[in-house]
Amino acid sequence: MNKLVDAKGKNCPIPVILAKKEIEAGENAFVVEVDNQTAVKNLEKLAASRGYASSVDEKDGAYRVAFSKDGEVCQIAEEEQGDSWVVFVGRETLGSGDDELGANLMKMYFYTIAQEKQLPSAVLFMNGGVKIPVLNDQVVEHLRDLQSRGVEVLVCGTCLNFFGIADKLQVGTVSNMYDITQRMLYAGKVVSL
Amino acid sequence: MDNNEYLVLTFESTHAAMSAQKYLKGKINHAVMPVPRCISASCGIAIRANAQDIGSLRQLLDGGFPVAPGAYSLYRVDQQDCAHKL
């Protein structure tokens, strides 16, 4: 019988973290039991990204997500994961030293990223970084361009509220720590600015 | 920003680029960009403007522009990414 991981009553991203531990321990087949659809979806995404097949059984409001590994698929999936990357922006300027220079470097960074063919899967804004999709008109334009090409733009809602600019967001989706953590977990690489 | 022909201002120093950017803010549609690879000289910060705005850009450069004429260069970059000094 496959190993059973009980993640009922645990909020996202805990079920994913527990499943990741099993994957990293080399388990080829295991089952994670959860009690909500969001966790099921996240576990399915994790399975796909790590080359595991997954199936779901529901019983009495509990979902059993079964992971099983196929070596060949795994290799492809790992390559895909290695290609994916996300950008984390935790401040309004790029680097430290001079804020005006840093603001210009941030504009140049997004200008350059938008010219590239290999785009990040997501751009994540937190803390002072949330001012960028609100106030920085040039970067807003680059972000709209990236979004139209499939890049997800997630902006920390708590941070927007803190700065009192939640109603002024020009581009992106208001998000939370769970979603932002998830994007980092699934990415092959996180570039932090 | 599309990939059509565009204008680029390059500068001798980063400070000149930043003061030019502050001056142009609100006066003409522009973007801050890294100096295009086809232009080898100058500091790393450049200002991009739309090709059709050449007239209004020239007016701004001639009146009150905070950077001395010898300390910046104006280029037209064509669709093949070749820069032509203006």
Describe the model.
The complex is a heterodimer of chains A (193) and B (86). In chain A, 45% of the residues lie in helices and 24% in strands. The N and C termini of chain A lie far apart (45 Å). In chain A, strand 7, helix 7 (157-163) and strand 8 (173-175) form a beta-alpha-beta unit. Chain A is an alpha/beta fold. Chain A has eight helices and nine strands. In chain A, strands 8-7-6-5-9 form a five-stranded parallel beta sheet. Chain A has two domains: 3-80, TusA-like domain (Translation Initiation Factor IF3), CATH 3.30.110.40; 84-192, DsrEFH-like (Hypothetical Protein Ychn, Chain: A). In chain B, strands 2-3-1-4-5 form a five-stranded antiparallel beta sheet. In chain B, strand 4 and strand 5 form a beta hairpin. Chain B has 86 residues and is α+β, with helices and mostly antiparallel strands. Chain B has one domain (6-85): Alpha-Beta Plaits (2-Layer Sandwich). The interface between A and B is small, with 12 and 11 residues.
Number of domains of chain A: 2
Strand order of the largest sheet of chain A: 8-7-6-5-9
Tally of DSSP helical segments of chain B: 2
Mass-distribution shape of chain A: elongated
List the helices and strands and how they pair.
The complex is a heterodimer of chains A (193) and B (86).
Chain A (H helix, E strand, L loop, with lengths): L2 E4 L7 H11 L4 E6 L2 H13 L2 E8 L2 E8 L1 H13 L1 E5 L9 H17 L6 E4 L6 H4 L1 H12 L3 E5 H7 L9 E3 L1 H10 L2 E4 L1
Parallel strand pairs in A: 1-2, 5-6, 5-9, 6-7, 7-8
Antiparallel strand pairs in A: 2-4, 3-4
Helix pairs in contact in A: 1-2, 4-6
Chain B lengths: L5 E6 L2 H11 L5 E5 L10 E6 L3 H9 L9 E6 L5 E3 L1
Antiparallel strand pairs in B: 1-3, 1-4, 2-3, 4-5
Summary?
Chain A is α/β, with parallel strands linked by helices and 193 residues long. Chain A contains eight helices and nine strands. Chain A is elongated, with a radius of gyration of 19 Å.
